[in-house]
Amino acid sequence: MRWFARREEPLFRTHQAPFQSPEWAEGQVVQHGDRLFRVTRWVECPSVLLERGGSVREWEVRGRRLSDQEMRAEVLDAAERIKDTDGEQ
Q1: How far apart are CA 27 and CA 38, in angstroms?
Q2: Residues 6+ positions from 45 with CB-CB distance below 8 Å
Q3: Which residue of 2, 5, 52, 63 could cross-link 37, Cys pair, CB 3.0 to 4.6 Å?
Q4: What is the pLDDT of residues 8-32, one digit of tens each?
Q5: The predicted structure's pLDDT at residue 75
Q6: Which residues, in sequence order, are CB contacts of 17 under 8 Å at separation 6+?
Q7: Domain boundaries, given as residue ranges, for the chain
Q8: How far is CA 62 from CA 51, 66, 88, in A?
Q9: Do 74 and 66 meet the contact criterion of CB atoms below 8 Å apart?
Q10: Rounded to an integer, what distance in angstroms lies between the CA atom of residue 58 and that of residue 17?
Q11: 7, 66, 81, 60: which is closest to 34 by C-alpha?
């Protein structure tokens, strides 16, 4: 594995607060571009001024790229979850 593959990277910015976005919570796996990342933290950015007045908060979601081992583990965990809920309604 290359040394730079494990560095934390800014993935995207959002106006949704962390509590409104459980799919991007710390520890979750997200796809960004053609790669998978584990969300490591949210960073609150300065408020963004709106053209018509006012402002909104903005957060930057940061993550670390998954290694091949971590990707395999995530796929196996997801398959197990699907298998366990397959017969439930």
Answers
A1: 6
A2: 13, 57, 58, 59, 60
A3: 63
A4: 999 999 999 999 999 999 999 998 8
A5: 84
A6: 57, 59
A7: 9-85
A8: 27, 13, 35
A9: yes
A10: 8
A11: 66
